[in-house]
Design a protein that fits this description.
Mean pLDDT: 84
Protein name: ComEA protein
CATH topology of the largest domain: DNA polymerase, domain 1
InterPro entries: Competence_ComEA_HhH, Endo/Exo/Phosphatase_dom_1, Hlx-hairpin-Hlx_DNA-bd_motif, RuvA_2-like, Soluble_ligand-bd
Number of strands: 5
Low-confidence stretches: 72-77
Oligomer: single chain
Number of domains: 2
Number of helices: 4
Organism: Limosilactobacillus oris DSM 4864
GO molecular function: DNA binding
Structural class: alpha/beta
Strand content: 5-15%
Largest sheet: 3 strands, mixed
CATH superfamily of the largest domain: Photosystem II 12 kDa extrinsic protein
C-alpha cells in the first residue's frame, strides 16, 4: 500500500491479506495531529496496489475521497464500483453488465492484473467505446 498525506512516515508498506486501513496508518507512524480522521473508515480492508490518502483538516482534495471511503455519485448516491476489487455480484449491479460481462471482467483481471484505467475495459471482449462510455461514471480503478 502507498500511504500518503497526514501521516508521520508516508511511504509504501506491505500487508497480509485482510489487513485494514487502521494497520496502514499505524505502519506509517500514525496520523499527524491535523489529520481529518473523522472521514476515514479505519475498518475498511486494504486492496493490493491501493493508495491510502489521509487528508489534513480543512484540506480540499480534488477527485479523491478520504481513505476507506468511496466517493458517491451526487446524483444516484451510489459509489462507483472498483474494477480491481469488485465481486461478480457488484459488477452485475452496473447498468448494462450481466453475468457474462462480469465473468469477462473477472477473467481479464485474473489474466492481466489490475486495471490501470477505466478505458482499459476496452481490452475486455465485448466492451467497446460506446459500452465503456455508458458505464464510465459507475466504475473506478
Amino acid at each position: 500500500m502507498d500511504v500518503k498525506g497526514a501521516v508521520q512516515k508516508p511511504g509504501v508498506y506491505y500487508f497480509k491479506r485482510g489487513a485494514r486501513i487502521q494497520e496502514a496508518i499505524r505502519a506509517a507512524g500514525g496520523a499527524l495531529p491535523n489529520a481529518a480522521m473523522k472521514d476515514v473508515n479505519l475498518a475498511k480492508e486494504l486492496a493490493d496496489q491501493q493508495i491510502i490518502y489521509i487528508p489534513a483538516e480543512g484540506e480540499q482534495v480534488a477527485n479523491q475521497a478520504p481513505a476507506g471511503t468511496d466517493a458517491a455519485d451526487p446524483v444516484t448516491g451510489k459509489a462507483p464500483v472498483n474494477l480491481n476489487t469488485a465481486t461478480k455480484e457488484q459488477l452485475c449491479q452496473i447498468t448494462g453488465i450481466g453475468d457474462k460481462k462480469a465473468d469477462l471482467i473477472l477473467e481479464y483481471r485474473q489474466q492481466h492484473g489490475q486495471f490501470k484505467t477505466v478505458d482499459e475495459l476496452m481490452q475486455v471482449s465485448g466492451f467497446g467505446e460506446k459500452t465503456v462510455a455508458k458505464i464510465k461514471e459507475q466504475v473506478a480503478v
